[in-house]
Amino acid sequence: MAHYVPACAPAADSPELQLELIALGDFDRSNDNVSILGSESARAPLSLPPDTRAVELSSLGDRGYWGTGTLAAEQRISVLLWPRERSCALAALGAAGAQSWLLGVAGDQLLCLGSAPGEPSPAGVLVDLSTARARPLALPGVLAPRAHASASSLGQRWLLAGGSDPVSGAALADAELFAPDSMAVERLSLSAPRTRHAAVVLPSGAVLLVGGESEQGAALGSVELLSAGAARSLPLLGTPRIQPSALLLDSGHILVGGGYVWTASTQDPRAGRQPIAGVELLGVDLTAGASVPIRLEPAALERAFVALPGGGALALGGCDPVVRAQPCLPCGNGPGCISREVWWLDAAGAAHELPPLPEALASAEPQLVAAAEGAPWLLANGRLARFDPWQARFVSVAESGYAPVQAPLALDGGSFVWLQRMGDELALLGQRASQRGPLTQDVAPLLVGSGRAVAPHRAPSSVAPEPGLTLRYEAASGLELGGAGAAVSITDTEYADFTLDLTLAEGPAPLLRLSGKGAAAGDGAAFGGLECPWPELPARAGESPARLRVRRSGGEVSLLLAGSANEAASELLAPCRRSLPERVSIELAGTPLGITRLLRIEVRRSLD
Predict the structure, then answer these.
(1) Which pLDDT does position 271 carry in this prediction?
(2) Where are the extended beta strands (E) located within 229-356?
(3) Between 304 and which of 243, 368, 493, 578 could a Cys-Cys bridge form, CB atoms 3.0 to 4.6 Å apart?
């Protein structure tokens, strides 16, 4: 069933839209899984391939709507149709008062809770993300009001943790687990009061509370692990910090960055905020303390962070409270200058400084939100911009209308939501900007005309050169990889059995890495090295490229030379056998033997 976002649906007197439906699963696209639907098909049963796991819907013509849906347990697929690449109102939240708001997602439900001084309980709305229907939540006496808390999913329930009392400001030492359908609440005790902290959902499903402020106003250097019915505190942070950012990275690390400590004067123990420049990495197993910090100088308040593919992250902006040089872009919300610095942090823990933000995108409180294709969004100064990973810079997409009152929330790689004042009212807005997901089928070859959907794991060589490493993409010459640290991912997708074809223009064959996602992120294997080599490349006449082929079937991976004679000969080699997760992501990396140049990447969800 398909549903338009109500506030942004076509007008009732608009001509009927036709929709293209693409069935997705572990199969290739064909006429059997692509349908054109008219208005008369709204209630008609659809004939989909029996192993369909998801669908994409998009409107035909000049009025763009699109959406995706996943097969639910009751064998139904609901699709929410968003306006294509335009913002849309999801819910009205009433007067824009002094509430402290929490946003959280559990399954296909979006929770939006506001706590106001003097109110005995929070109130808000619950949005069904499969239909965009919002219903108000009245919670008298059920939940405690909380400011500066965190909202996370823990299993099929929401976890509201820590925070401070909206009236007294006292930090809270408890958490509440609840499900809106039943309103049954379970309370957990924290090891100590904690507010203005960060929260991360770990691959195990547990929630990690990171840093924050104590009841006495001190910065906390501990983390707290919360699972159903249990809480455990661990002193893991190298630097205590209030209001940090915390990200779960593809590398299996947790990045902790930003935040501040209070600076005191003789009159006021909280006279000012001193930003923290160091960024720490924690192991996701929490068995060891933080790494040696990566320093991002100058330190800035409200610095923004977002995860990138391959275990990296992006950091930028904020307010440097010290006026260091002229010209200065005043912070506006306090003394100091707006920071225009941008860094790419790679999985090895190195920071690569990128070109500074243009003045139009420099903000004292920038907001970054994760997105598909390794291209996160930046909301700053009312503008929306998107990161181009191959140019390592932000490109403005929309010039006005984006002014979140707090950090946006990514729903998946394709959509995100935020709170925004609309006159005297507060509204929940959202936008869907991409259809890429785990079952996406890349019909056109990748790398041809564009580097989209192939993301680098570190800053490209054209922006941040490193000795002995080549990592760049140009439409005319293709993808160049040199050195083991030069790696890329096919973004956002996962594969069961597949066939991968690579067109190699010159240089050695690349390394192939297959790895899992989520709880299986540490599982995987590499191919194309000494233990599982490519067949010997044939002599190539002139500039004739070679075609490499990979077939993955369960735990067997065959590295072949494509083409009738070459392929038949290389198939005589035994497949490489490895223990692999059921579904894997695909990465390619360079070698120390020379520069690999690839012209095309083609992936099919079948075995040729």
Answers:
(1) 66
(2) 230-234, 245-248, 253-257, 260-263, 272-275, 278-283, 294-295, 304-307, 313-316, 319-320, 337-338, 342-345, 351-354
(3) 368
Q: How distant, in Å, are the alpha carbons of 446, 496, 527, 528 from that of 557?
A: 21, 12, 8, 10
Q: Which residue positions in the chain have pLDDT lower than 50?
A: none
Token pair for residue 265?
Answer: 């004067």
Dihedral of CA atoms 442, 440, 486, 592 in degrees, nearest 10, equals -60
pLDDT reported for residue 341: 96
Give dist(CA 556, CA 547) in Å, integer: 20
* pTM for the whole structure: 0.94
How far apart, in whole angstroms, are the C-alpha atoms of residue 81 and residue 39?
14
The predicted-structure confidence for 452-496, as pLDDT tens digits, reads as follows 999 999 999 999 999 999 999 999 999 999 998 999 999 999 999
Would you report the helix, strand and coil content of the chain in percent, each value rounded to 5? 5, 45, 50
- pLDDT of res. 518: 67
Distances (CA, A) of 50 to 26, 28, 56, 478: 11, 13, 16, 38
- Convert the pLDDT of each residue in 523-548 to its tens digit: 789 999 988 999 988 776 566 899 99
Contact 226, 161 (CB under 8 A): yes
Maximum Cα–Cα distance for the chain, whole Å? 84
Q: What does the DSSP 8-state code read for residue 532?
A: S
Measured distance CA(30)–CA(534) in Å, rounded: 31
How big is the chain, counted in residues? 608
Distance separating alpha carbons of residues 191 and 161, to the nearest angstrom = 12
Closest CA to 247 of 213, 275, 214, 282: 282
Residue given tokens 């299986």 in the structure block: 520
> If you compute the radius of gyration of the chain from its CA atoms, what whole number of angstroms results?
25
Q: For residue 436, which of 16, 47, 54 has the smallest C-alpha distance?
A: 54
Q: Which of 563, 546, 476 is nearest to 510 (CA)?
A: 546
The DSSP string of 176-221 is EEE-TTT--EEEEE-SS--BS-EEEE-TTS-EEEE--B-TTSPBP-
